[in-house]
Specification:
23 strands; 573 residues; alpha+beta; 5-stranded antiparallel beta sheet; elongated
């Protein structure tokens, strides 16, 4: 299966107008402050994929409905989310018309993709342990909302949550009798067996169980090992609450009473009802003897938030397919670690890079710059920049004609080229002096890397000594450099025009001034192009007649020349 090449959003959530994010089949690292539209991209993918399981287009894309997620500022009547895959011209769309494929395909890859992708955000982690001290932990609400809609049955015929939805539509009986239809009971039985299969994977059958993931990746050095066990058992004699069961069933409701000194289970309903199941959580901690384990009665009060988060992630990650290589499926992670300090975040980062990335594409959304920079550093250290799309998304108030604040704010994606991310962040906050300072440093670094020593040094007319040229000199030399290297100088000439008002560190007084907004964008564009030249492999044009002709062992000739710009030896075939 090919990976997603692009996602388009129009009129959906934070996006009033057409927005395109080029993913190019790569991993995604996206920074954005709260309200910038970052999570809207996460939910756009979630909504489109979930259309394979629950099509709520008549609710989400109808502005008159309370659950509508159409952008309140949009003037579009056809809000939509679309994705395309690599090497595939088909458009996969969700809108008020429902799910569509343009043109229609015989076998849709989106159905299987939804069954293999994983969405995790901070709400998922919060819901795992948002229980009062007096409550037992029941994870079924988390499973039915965030896990079962993304898991196909073992035969691949449907999503597990679709069976549940069908059962919950109402009891099907034989005419007016009290007996339920055998086909209805079969659906209940199938749901229970499929859910039990998943629980057994998490507990003991997965390549990496929840217990193993926690102890191997998330446990702090010196801490005791844990056993993580989920319960989903067909045991009618143990009812956790009057309206609950340990198994999805159509039955009477029960409760416990004390009768003649004995605890009995009695029916408290006069008719058959659909009893909601429970998925219980048992956590045991290794004892002092290093052999036996002791059960923790109330994990939500015994463990801190970092440990609870690690346990929740261990449970979810146990369901990852650790046998199949990357095939286009992804993990979408939206601000899921906001409650963790950096030491605990690093453990999760290590797991994502060392384990999950071998089998999934990773989409990371975060509003935390420190976390974003930590991921960026990891990517740089591993030299995997070519496998990632990195950048920020910001709310802008500039229209297509570059008129300042002439339109409603809208999200704008800025690809991260290290310094430029900071510049655009300051730009979005209208802190133009900070932009100028960052631009100046960026310009100095680029020209220092581009120029040969002949353009970085000059003879002082007074002393006769060789001194470094300043930024003003180097910007003036740009035209000469472009002429020598055969580059189009016209694309860069405005750098000299804007130098004094933007790149002069002492010229910035009014911190809120919009005067230089467009000029900042223009300088950023110019420096981005110069950065591209700096990072590209530029062969020096040489006169082979002045070089030293040699022969390689395979008898092919080569010419050895000296690159006087960097004093490095280069070999040209």
């Amino acid at each position: 299966m090919s990976a997603i090449s692009e996602i388009k959003i129009d009129g959906f959530k934070a996006f009033p107008n057409d927005f395109t994010l080029e993913l190019k089949g790569k991993n995604l690292l996206l920074y954005g402050e709260n309200g910038s539209g970052k999570s809207s991209i996460y939910y756009a993918l979630h909504t489109l994929l979930q259309s394979q399981c629950k099509n709520k287009n008549d609710v989400y894309f109808d502005i008159a409905k309370p659950e509508s997620i159409i952008n309140k500022h949009t003037k579009k009547t056809d809000a939509k989310v679309e994705i395309k895959f690599e090497n595939d011209d088909t458009i996969y769309r969700i809108s008020q018309n429902g799910y569509e494929e343009l043109p229609t395909r015989g076998i849709s890859p989106l159905r299987d993709l939804n069954g293999q992708c994983v969405f995790i955000n901070h709400k998922f982690l919060f819901n795992v342990f948002s229980f009062r001290n007096s409550q037992y932990i029941d994870l079924f609400p988390v499973f039915i909302k965030d896990i079962l809609p993304f898991v196909l049955t073992q035969d691949g015929s449907e999503y597990i949550s679709m069976i549940y939805d069908e059962v919950m539509k109402g009891i099907k009986r034989h005419g007016k009798s009290h007996r339920i239809l055998g086909s209805y009971q079969d659906r209940i039985d199938k749901f229970n067996s499929e859910t039990k299969y998943l629980i057994d994977l998490i507990n003991s059958n997965a390549v990496k169980t929840a217990t193993r993931i926690f102890n191997d990746y998330f446990r702090n050095a010196g801490e005791r090992k844990l056993k993580i066990t989920l319960g989903y058992e067909n045991n009618r004699d143990k009812v956790p609450q009057p309206d609950k069961s340990y198994w999805l069933r159509c039955d009477h409701r029960y409760q416990y009473i004390e009768k003649a000194g004995r605890r009995e289970e009695i029916s408290i309903s006069t008719r058959m009802e659909i009893l909601q199941p429970s998925i219980t959580l048992t956590i045991e901690e290794l004892g002092d003897d290093g052999i036996s384990y002791q059960q923790i009665e109330k994990p939500q009060t015994y463990f801190n938030e970092a440990k609870l988060t690690a346990i929740a992630l261990s449970i979810r990650f146990a369901l990852l397919d650790m046998l199949t290589p990357v095939n286009g499926r992804f993990l979408a992670l939206d601000d899921m670690l906001i409650s963790l300090d950096m030491s605990n975040r690093r453990k999760v980062i290590d797991y994502l890079f060392d384990v999950a990335a071998q089998h999934y594409i990773i989409y990371i959304f975060t509003h935390d710059r420190l976390f974003y920079n930590s991921i960026k550093k990891r990517i740089t250290i591993e030299h995997t920049q070519n496998k990632w799309i990195s950048g920020g998304i910001y709310m802008h108030s500039i229209d297509e004609k570059n008129n300042y604040q002439s339109c409603m704010p809208y999200p704008k994606y800025i690809e991260d080229k290290d310094t430029i991310l900071e510049i655009y962040e300051y730009y979005a906050m209208h802190d133009y002096p900070a932009c100028g300072q960052k631009l100046r440093k960026w310009c100095e670094r680029i020209l220092d890397g581009l120029y040969p020593d002949t353009l970085k040094k000059r003879i002082d007319a007074t002393t006769g000594q060789t001194i470094d040229t300043n930024l003003n000199d180097r910007i003036l030399y740009l035209e000469e450099f472009c002429a020598n290297e055969k580059f189009d100088y016209s694309k860069f000439k405005n750098l000299k025009i804007y130098k004094d008002c933007i790149l002069n560190a002492v010229s910035h007084y009014d911190i809120q001034s919009p005067i230089y907004g467009n000029e900042i964008l223009e300088i950023a564009r110019i420096l981005s192009e110069l950065e591209t030249i700096l990072n590209s492999k530029r062969d020096i044009k040489v006169n082979h007649g002045l070089g030293l002709e040699l022969q390689k062992p395979d008898m092919q000739s080569l010419t050895v020349c000296i690159d006087i710009k960097s004093s490095k030896l280069k070999i040209y075939d």
